[in-house]
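Sequence in, structure out.
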Amino acid sequence: MFAEKGEDKAVTRAGGQAVIEGVMMRAGHRMAVACRAPDGEIVLHRERVASLAEGRPLLRLPILRGGLALVESLSLGIKALMFSANLQAQAEDEKITRGEMSLAVAMGLGLAVVLFVLLPTLSTVLMRNVLEGRLALNLFEGAVRLTLVVGYIAAIGYFPDMSRVFQYHGAEHMVIGTWEDEGSPAEFEPSVERIRRASTAHARCGTSFILMVAVVSVLVFSFFGWPSILGRIAIRLLMLPVVAGIAYELIKLAAEGRGRIFEILVIPGMWLQRLTTREPDPDQLEVALAALRGCVAEGDEET
């Protein structure tokens, strides 16, 4: 989920992601990760974070800010995953290095490029004699990409460890939704029972963003004709930041309630979140609440 950047005093929205037995939250210039340690205690890490857009007005322009938000979210997500993974590994006297985590992330990104960029593009080769026109071929490619995205998300949800991550994902949404509904008060002290009445879906969720990227890519790639297979692959890789930037702007407009048309655009993403979220238990809500309190509380020292 994307957070709103800006001065801390103006922050009215938060974002974050689920990690291993925990949740990372970001609100303004603060980030906090709360995890349930093997001994049952909640361990909190918090720090200040700076955006690359500070002092660089160009990076705040529409489209460009979407690509930047994606890069910053990925960077914070890796840091939060390292913290949560090492906390769980302490029980076995192990430690995951930054190099090991970077390698794992690189392999994951590589797999994503192969599955969701290269494979859909290559699949159109089999349909050249069946479908006529570049629009039909682009629609077919988009359908293959969308099928792979939904299928992959549905498949990983069957793994027990991922199912727990999806529960923390739901907890993240429920806590943030309750906080934002209250108008972002300085002291956020809701009961767990109250948070449990909130929805596990949220308009700014990364799941909605991924689906929006898949849809926008069909429209954007249609403008580039139908060059050779290598040309198509190169165009799709080079245009990914632009596609991500457009998807970010659409998600942002929908989350801000700028119009019914934008709200309709994110409805499929809200449906897809039924696959990436699970109903959390009270202990998981407690962890997500600790993460949000950690990044909106006063004080910037690391803990």
